[in-house]
Design goal:
Residues 2-228 form the NAD-dependent epimerase/dehydratase domain. This is NAD-dependent epimerase. One of its GO terms (cellular component) is cytoplasm. The relative contact order is 0.13. A seven-stranded parallel beta sheet has the order 3-2-1-4-5-6-10, sandwiched between helices. It has a three-stranded mixed beta sheet with strand order 7-9-11. The chain has a two-stranded parallel ribbon with strand order 8-12. The chain has helices spanning 10-21, 33-44, 50-54, 70-73, 94-114, 151-168, 192-199, 215-227, 244-255, 266-283, 291-296, 306-312, 319-333; strands spanning 2-5, 26-30, 57-61, 79-82, 119-123, 173-178, 180-182, 204-205, 209-214, 233-237, 240-243, 262-263. The chain is α/β, with parallel strands linked by helices.
């Protein structure tokens, strides 16, 4: 039996599709029924009979922050993909991020040890690796420092420490550090907002850039690593390093609109994060841009995926192919 935590998210839902499509016996955690309906929608992007595949999954309602709810989830499980996480870059959500990303991961690791799980694959993030220095690409051996790191990155880094602690106690583990994951279905969050923003024919784009990866490459890499004898290793997953301008130049034409052409100035960004901070303090509004996020926009971060290519002979697909696919599905939603 294979367990997928966070099976209703972008990575989790695509991982479930890949597993059940290949005849694997799968169990997945969920928080509410609406999230399962969303998984059915994701399956429907790829097959005409999503409900048939959905019925192959054993769904268990569970919360990784509640260790008592995890025992049923782990019964008779041999392999675990831990995809569940809270994603937020708002400093006001720090305690919630700690609860889900760090304490929740610690709970998963502890239950894995208790149930003698054969192998755990943890989905981390490039946000947990740190920034490039002196124009060099970031690798898995990058020295960690928390300068200009988001609260999300901080908690994902600390969650990795829980996974490494589990490996020291005898649990076989692998960690993947995906870049910004491009995939269909979540148009109001994460990478989906790039498609929504481009469709509105906006004129401005943010400076800087980062590493991007297709959701199918993330799921394939995870499965390859779990099926291999590799353990106690982490792997950056990035198809291409792009500026945000370059990304919009790939998305906009496929949506039949003009790409944004005006780069937001650093002066405007420095003003906005301060105004955003004041707005939060006075009116209690959610943060949209922090100081650390602003500093991260001053350059295009570049990440290397050479390690996974060499370790398991992994080949990344063409990023534009999934962008084309996402644009097609996005237009069909309207």
């Amino acid at each position: 039996m294979i367990l997928v935590t966070g099976g209703t998210g972008l990575i989790g839902s695509h991982l479930l599709f890949h597993l059940v499509k290949n005849g694997k016996k799968v169990r997945a955690s969920y928080r509410n029924q609406n999230s399962i309906n969303r998984v059915s929608k994701i399956f429907g992007y790829y097959v005409d009979n999503p409900s048939d595949l959905l019925e192959e999954i054993t769904w268990v309602k569970a919360d990784i922050t509640d260790i008592t709810s995890l025992h049923e989830l782990f019964q008779d499980v041999e392999y675990v993909y831990h995809c569940a996480a809270l994603i937020s870059f708002d400093p006001n959500d720090y305690n919630a991020l700690v609860k889900t990303n760090i304490e929740g991961t610690a709970n998963v690791v502890n239950i894995c040890l208790e149930h003698n799980i054969k192998k755990l694959c943890y989905v981390s993030s490039i946000a947990a690796i740190g920034s490039s220095t002196k124009a060099k690409e970031v690798t898995e051996d990058n020295e960690w420092n928390d300068m200009n790191v988001s609260v999300y990155g901080l908690t994902k880094h600390d969650a990795e420490l829980e996974v490494w602690r589990g490996s020291q106690e005898g649990l076989a583990v692998v960690i993947v550090n995906p870049g910004v994951v491009i995939g269909p279905g979540f148009w109001k969050s994460g990478s989906g907002t790039f498609f929504t923003y481009a469709s509105k024919v906006k004129k401005s784009f943010l400076p800087g850039g980062t590493g991007f990866v297709t959701v199918s490459d993330v799921t394939h890499a995870m499965v390859n690593l779990m099926d291999s004898e590799v353990e106690k290793e982490r792997f950056i997953l990035v198809n291409e390093n792009l500026s945000y301008q370059q990304l919009f130049q790939k998305i906009a034409p496929k949506l039949g609109v003009k790409a944004p052409t005006k780069k937001v100035s650093f002066l405007a960004l420095e003003f906005f994060w301060r105004w955003d901070w004041l707005r939060n303090k006075l009116l209690g509004k959610r943060r949209r841009l922090t100081k650390n996020m602003t500093k991260g926009l001053y350059k295009v971060e570049k990440y290397s995926s050479e390690k996974i290519k060499k370790t398991v002979s992994f080949e990344f697909e063409n990023l534009e192919s999934i962008i084309d696919f996402c644009c097609e599905k996005f237009k069909n939603q309207k």
